[in-house]
Design brief:
Blueprint: H1 2-11, H2 15-26, H3 35-62, H4 83-90, H5 93-96, E1 100-104, H6 111-124, E2 129-133, H7 134-147, H8 150-158, E3 162-168, H9 175-188, E4 193-198, H10 205-209, H11 212-222, E5 226-230, H12 236-239, H13 256-262
Parallel strand pairs: 1-4, 1-5, 2-3, 3-4
Helix pairs in contact: 1-2, 2-3, 3-6, 7-8, 8-9, 9-11
Length: 263
């Protein structure tokens, strides 16, 4: 009878309950529990299993560049973190309010880490997210246009709860790319949230976009309802670099990490 029950749970794709039942059978003390208590434990296990599976699916679909968590942020680093604002953003209320977030600062300061941490938090809170480097997204849209599927791709982007666009403003935009951006932000305005990472200050975005008319339209939909975080400080990558030895030659033996490993 026990094997028939296990098989039936597997057949019904109740894998959380199946694993929990097998665990109960291996634990003699569970036999002292009432039927209702054991059933509730099985239902809780199935719920937890489904939530975890959904989270794994959302994280995989998000394609985050870094496996980052908000709990790993170093608030002691001199990067001008507004802890109150970050705590508020961690609650994902800004996603429910359909607001945007603009992260600016020099290269290597941790913009991508923070963006991925916030996107990961969104996934934990049952929101969908997707990370793109802007140049790559625009390239994909160009390919989709040649294949006649650009409308389908734009529609898919419009449905994402949190769209992360990294490396904003790195390269000049073509007229077609500017119009693609306008389509994206017009679809998302007051419906979904967008997070943009850029080295350029927001004040320079209008000039970077190029066409004044399209720049007005794009930024009007992106900037006016957005939170802003400007990170400052030294590059984290520079801080993690290998120090130079005599004569400017890199000497691995002088790398503190290598010394620690040797010791």
């Amino acid at each position: 009878m026990r094997q028939l029950t296990v098989d039936k749970l597997a057949e019904l794709s109740l894998n959380g309950m199946r694993k929990a039942l097998e665990g109960q059978e291996a634990e003699p003390r569970s036999r002292d529990l009432s039927f209702e208590d054991r059933l509730l434990m099985l239902l809780d296990a199935e719920e937890l299993f489904r939530k975890q599976r959904s989270l794994e699916y959302r994280l995989k679909a998000a394609g985050l560049r870094q496996n980052a968590r908000m709990e790993e942020l170093d608030y002691k680093a001199a990067r001008s973190f507004d802890r109150a604002l970050l705590d508020s953003l961690s609650s994902c209320r800004w996603l429910k309010e359909k607001r945007n977030l603009l992260l600016t600062g020099p290269t290597g300061i941790g913009k991508t880490f923070l963006a991925c941490a916030l996107a990961g938090k969104a996934c934990q809170m049952s929101h969908s997210a997707r990370y793109f480097r802007l140049p790559r997204l625009l390239s994909e849209l160009s390919v989709a246009r040649g294949q006649g599927t650009s409308r389908t791709k734009l529609a898919a982007i419009a449905r994402i709860d949190l769209l992360v666009l990294d490396d904003w403003g790195l390269t000049p935009l073509t007229d077609v790319e500017r119009r693609d951006l306008l389509e994206i932000f017009d679809d998302r305005y007051d419906r979904r949230s967008t997070l943009v990472c850029a080295q350029l200050p927001v004040e320079n975005w209008h000039e970077a976009i190029g066409d004044p008319t399209l720049a007005d339209a794009i930024l009007d939909r992106l900037v006016h309802n957005a939170y802003r975080i400007e990170l400052k400080g030294e590059s984290i990558r520079k801080a993690k670099g290998i120090p130079k030895g005599r004569g400017g030659i890199i000497d691995p033996s002088e790398n503190p990490e290598n010394q620690a490993a040797t010791n």
